[in-house]
């Protein structure tokens, strides 16, 4: 017998369940408990960058929007810098922009929205430029382990075409499942997305 | 806890410490999906229409995954880890008073410091304070059912609450959830993000729970069951349960031998 390695094993995932809001967004469960709450608004008045609304739905195998899903997003700032010590790229850090938010879908429509800024292009650790993107993590009743995906931006065609992660996707047609579509509504910039859990247009999910 | 920490201040793991390579900023260890429930687990019916059917695309940890949100004490309030007091209106909530404590570790055995742990649960009767929960057990006016804590420098966390009750749910005609507490943990990188559930030693509903039994690995299932920890209990006040949570370990970058653009 060789020497034992004795690594610990990761704790098994379990579904967030239908009442995930109690713990993570208590106001949606119908009560007020914490002095300070996390939300779907990532910006403060001082945040630098183009203000955008992210708006979308998560769709089940019958084409029905999930109405009890919770999304979290994690993103770089407008200079392409993550607010975390492991990002050693040159972009300027904005200490007050955490770059993270969470949102529950509307209990009737299933719509999920975030108010944030468009992130800048990111320089990865190998020095490559990556197209601007937002990392998304999805949990809900019936989802046994959180799903990781990304949102890219429809007005970044050239950057998307060169992005090393999008280019890992074998079928070009599937790359479009990660691209949020830009529009303007009442003077606001809106990026719309659809996350399909199943079907011919199933979104690309990552084993990160 | 009356502002006192529970008795166990320096918890040690009752298992051998693995050799921890130097802490680096490499990607995370490849996730062993055989210990996690599969996305499509027909015994848990809700998973059928909500499970991706294509293969996940494996992504070597990039800067987007090895980074993640950082939280601090400014994000929390003083009662956030005290579920007995954080929603009390005219008295204490009904139920068995318990302390839940443990460490957040990574796969190398190192504590994960200053990471956010969030928890939520049903009340002692098995009812959630949630507008969508219609179970006939009553809402407890003094119990909200959620809390959160930051781990300390060693990865240690604790909170106090009442033991949740089991409750029925629509899966089979007579499916009951074992008593459980939901946990959400961040770690240092977004790839470590994890939601899980803690169960209680000795609960006879554990082996027949359609959600718990989605986990294919018996040892992985057992690791979700918190033992009674009498040593950490508060005499004449609260029993204690111990629940350690393990997040993915991080690879080290021993040698920088990649050329740029490679």
Summarize the structure.
The complex is a heterodimer of chains A (208) and B (262). Chain A contains four helices and eleven strands.
Structure description:
The complex is a heterodimer of chains A (208) and B (262). With 208 residues, chain A is mainly β. Chain A has four helices and eleven strands; from the N terminus they run ααββββββββααβββ. Chain A has helices at 20-24, 26-29, 157-162, 172-175, and strands spanning 51-59, 70-75, 100-104, 112-117, 122-123, 129-130, 134-139, 147-153, 179-185, 188-196, 206-207. The mean pLDDT of chain A is 96. Chain B contains two helices and twelve strands; from the N terminus they run βαββββββββαβββ. Chain B starts with 56 loop residues before the first strand and ends in a 15-residue tail after the last strand. Chain B has a five-stranded mixed sheet with strand order 4-3-8-9-10, with no helix packed on it. In chain B, strands 2, 5, 11 and 12 form a four-stranded mixed sheet that branches. A two-stranded antiparallel ribbon of chain B has the order 6-7. Chain B is 3% helix and 22% strand.
Descriptive tags:
heterodimer, A: 208 residues, 8-stranded mixed β-sheet, two-stranded antiparallel sheet, 11 strands, globular, B: 262 residues, mainly beta, 5-stranded mixed β-sheet
Task: Itemize the secondary structure elements and their pairings.
The complex is a heterodimer of chains A (about 210) and B (about 260).
Chain A: H1 20-24, H2 26-29, E1 51-59, E2 70-75, E3 100-104, E4 112-117, E5 122-123, E6 129-130, E7 134-139, E8 147-153, H3 157-162, H4 172-175, E9 179-185, E10 188-196, E11 206-207
Parallel strand pairs in A: 1-10, 8-9
Antiparallel strand pairs in A: 1-4, 2-3, 2-7, 5-6, 7-8, 9-10
Chain B: E1 57-58, H1 63-66, E2 97-106, E3 116-121, E4 146-150, E5 156-162, E6 167-169, E7 175-177, E8 180-185, E9 194-200, H2 218-222, E10 225-226, E11 239-242, E12 245-247
Parallel strand pairs in B: 2-11, 2-12, 9-10
Antiparallel strand pairs in B: 2-5, 3-4, 3-8, 6-7, 8-9
């Amino acid at each position: 017998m060789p020497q034992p390695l004795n690594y610990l094993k990761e704790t098994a995932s379990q579904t967030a369940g239908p009442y995930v809001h109690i713990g993570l967004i208590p106001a949606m469960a119908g009560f007020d408990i914490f002095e300070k709450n996390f939300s779907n608004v990532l910006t403060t008045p001082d945040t630098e960058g183009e203000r955008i609304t992210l708006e979308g739905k998560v769709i089940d195998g019958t084409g029905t929007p999930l109405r009890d899903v919770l999304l979290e997003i994690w993103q770089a700032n407008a200079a392409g810098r993550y607010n975390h010590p492991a990002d050693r790229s040159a972009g300027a850090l904005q200490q007050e922009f955490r770059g993270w938010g969470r949102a529950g879908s509307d209990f009737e429509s299933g719509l999920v929205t975030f108010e944030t800024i468009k992130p800048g292009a990111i320089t990865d650790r190998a020095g490559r430029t990556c197209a601007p993107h937002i990392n998304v993590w999805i949990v809900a009743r019936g989802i046994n382990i959180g799903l990781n995906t990304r949102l890219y931006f429809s007005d970044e065609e050239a950057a998307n075409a060169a992005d090393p992660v999008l280019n890992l996707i074998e079928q070009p047609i599937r790359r479009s499942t990660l691209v949020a579509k830009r529009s303007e509504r009442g003077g606001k910039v809106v990026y719309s997305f659809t996350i399909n859990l199943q079907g011919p247009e199933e979104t690309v999910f990552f084993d990160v | 806890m009356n502002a006192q920490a529970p008795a166990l201040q320096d918890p040690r793991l009752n298992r051998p410490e693995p050799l921890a390579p130097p802490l680096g900023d490499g990607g995370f260890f490849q996730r062993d999906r055989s210990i996690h429930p599969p996305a499509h687990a027909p015994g848990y019916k809700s998973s059928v229409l909500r499970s991706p059917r294509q293969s996940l695309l494996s992504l070597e940890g990039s800067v987007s995954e090895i980074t993640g949100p950082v939280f601090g004490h400014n994000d929390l309030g003083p009662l956030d880890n005290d579920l007995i007091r954080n929603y009390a209106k005219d008295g204490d909530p009904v139920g068995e008073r318990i302390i839940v404590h443990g460490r957040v570790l990574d796969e190398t055995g190192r504590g994960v410091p200053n990471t956010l742990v969030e928890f939520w649960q049903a009340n002692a009767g098995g009812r959630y304070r949630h507008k969508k929960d219609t179970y006939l057990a009553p809402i407890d006016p003094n119990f909200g059912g959620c809390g959160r804590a930051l781990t300390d420098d060693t990865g240690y966390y604790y909170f106090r609450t009442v033991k949740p009750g089991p409750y029925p749910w629509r899966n089979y005609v007579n499916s009951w959830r074992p008593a459980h507490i939901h946990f959400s943990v961040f770690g240092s990188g977004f790839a470590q993000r994890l939601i899980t559930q803690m169960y209680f030693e000795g609960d006879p509903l554990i082996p027949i729970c359609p959600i718990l039994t989605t986990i294919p690995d018996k040892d992985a299932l057992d690791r979700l069951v918190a033992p009674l920890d009498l040593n950490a209990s508060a005499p004449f006040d609260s029993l204690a349960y111990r629940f350690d949570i393990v997040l993915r370990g991080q690879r080290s970058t021993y040698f920088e031998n990649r050329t740029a653009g490679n």
